[in-house]
């Protein structure tokens, strides 16, 4: 339903994300946590309504969950794009997304992946 709109908004995303700083990572995580909370609330609401009326129409509520899940998936993709900005906790060396190793190239300290889930 909203897939065409989604594609349009997603199309311009990659470019603007390039200039985003690592502080957006925590921002995105907050937004994802918010959407996940809302999904739980809608799930609870569906449960309540179903209990009251098992033959009711819950497609709008389900579509709301689907929308939020899509948003979460999109934000997680953004997080993965930002994931490249890793900083060594020991020496402070910064690594971009082209650096694929799990250890700091400067001091050998293990680089922690950003917590994405
Ligand atoms: Zn290091």
Please explain how this structure is put together.
This protein is 59% helix and 3% strand. With 117 residues, it is mainly alpha-helical. It has two domains: 61 residues; 33 residues. Strands 1-2 form a two-stranded antiparallel ribbon. The longest helix has 30 residues. It starts with a helix and ends in a 22-residue tail after the last strand. 5% of the residues are buried.
Please sum up the structure shown.
The chain has 117 residues and is mostly helical. It has helices at 3-11, 13-17, 23-52, 59-83; strands spanning 86-87, 94-95.
Number of strands: 2
Proportion in β-strands: under 5%
Low-pLDDT stretches are: 10-20
What would you call the structural class? mainly alpha
The number of domains: 2
Radius of gyration, taken over Cα atoms and rounded to an integer in Å: 19 Å
Report the bound ligands by name, code or SMILES.
zinc ion
Please tell me what the overall shape is: rod-shaped
Proportion of helical residues: 55-70%
- Major sheet strand order: 1-2
Oligomeric organization of the protein chains: single chain
**Residue-averaged pLDDT, rounded?**
80
Distance between the termini: 27 Å
Keywords:
4 helices; 117 residues; binds zinc ion; mainly alpha; 2 domains; 3% strand
Strand and helix map with partners:
Layout: H1 3-11, H2 13-17, H3 23-52, H4 59-83, E1 86-87, E2 94-95
Antiparallel strand pairs: 1-2
The chain binds zinc ion (ZN).
